[in-house]
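Hi V.,

You were right to ask for the full record rather than a summary. Here it is.
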Amino acid sequence: MCVNWPGHMQGMLAEGLHLRPLNDIAALVVKLRFNCVRLTYSIHMFTRHANLTVQQSFENFDLKNTIAGIAQNNPSILNMTLVQAYGAVVDSLAAHRIMVVSDNHISQPRWCCDNNDGNGFFGDRYFDPQEWLQGISLAAQSLKSKSQVVAMSLRNELRGPNQNVEKWFQYMSQGAKLIHQINPNALVVVSGLSYDTDLSFLKNRSMGFNLDNKLVFEAHLYSFTNNMGDFWMSKPLNTFCASVNQGFEDRAGFLVRGQNPIPLFVSEFGIDQTG
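Predicted structure:
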């Protein structure tokens, strides 16, 4: 089972390295009985900031305390480039026999997600398709020698007013084939539409390839998915749970059944913990 470790925010560094040594965090993942980490990154880290050091990245935000924390807990990382630091995190996880799913979470480094953040779909303000292809290519090339990276995820939570099925097929097919060409040993994880909750369009049209059985689809399910949050308290629980299960089956679960089943990776699920 995987745990998510975000590295796609403005600092472009896996979170928590200013608080704990990298080795300690990797050991904690094992202690918590996870054997996999979904490690996120932003496209711009590879395409625009590849030569920026960790220290320079945080200096850009005047985060002196964060820099001091990294210097104390992970001094070897401070002068690495952001891409090197991402690789160092992968190496530490590998040393603890933890598998890694490298996940392109967003293009512009920032919190993810909402419909109008400019990162939702191909052609949005910060989501240039050609830069995206360049970014995932650079990520795949930098990680292809690291055997513990078992999967490359093309994009987290496609969404927003510009999403459409035709462009999904066009660009996700290009991206999947590109990653497979660079690293044929890695699984290629392909997400759906509407915040990765909808792959139902694949009922009527397949991608037309399986990348030598390396193709995996991805789905998310939260208690608040599709505005379900209020219904947990207002509807009969057994019938509502059945409705949620059926909805997931209709939008994504069907992929693992039938004559040509394809693996489905539920990479995010849970409840609203904002209180």
